Amino acid sequence: MDIARISRQDKDLLDRVREVGAATASATLAHMGLRNCFLTGPLCFSPGRVVAGPAVTLQCMPKREDLLDEGEYADVEAQLHRHVLYQVEEGDVVVVDARGDMTSGIFGDMMMTYFKGRKGAGVVIDGCIRDWGRVQKLDLALWIRGVTPNYHAQTNIMPFAVNVPVACGGVTVVPGDIIVADDDGAVCVPVALAEEMVEKAHKDHGWEEFSREKLLAGESLKRYYPLHKDAEPEYREWLVRTGQEPE
User: Fold this and answer.
1) Does 45 reside within a domain?
2) Within-domain flag for 185
3) Spatial distance between the Cα atoms of 110 and 179, rounded to a whole number of angstroms
């Protein structure tokens, strides 16, 4: 089976994208002209987790019985949901276009146990998994639509291709794109724009911690969010005082 290999970015870039987070990444990409980068549908099932890693993709299609050997164990090596996991390296994010289907569980306990052993960073599925009682004990970073008792091709869909562009949550995800995901959801960051996004995010949103302190203290919303130009000297003084900028 000929499956394309993905290109992986250096850890420093991934760490910087992770620090930006999903909400700021989404807003920054929108300001850069990319308004459809949030994967709508998959929800955070692992509160407090933040991941950023290259996308390894699985595409599902509506089931056609002549193209699929029926049965969960009929021909296991023909099952592409296994082969996408074979591609996983440490830090990768598996992204599955499951067509928003709420009946088929793309992965279950055993597959997710293998994924954890491969040291993948997270899984984003526009659909469901099964064996939730066992899977949640694995403490994985998951963004999914829900859970089901059914196996991956039991009902309406079938795995069709690995490491091809997919439409997950209404977003085009190209293999190797950087997925950043946290409590707000998952966002696709095109690799070619990742450096620019990080730089612009720090420039456009670096003042937010300062403003957050001011707002918590009951200060003016008009002055501190967004940061008014008259408050910029205060912000620069704050940067020096907190050691984020030399005197």
Assistant:
1) yes
2) yes
3) 24
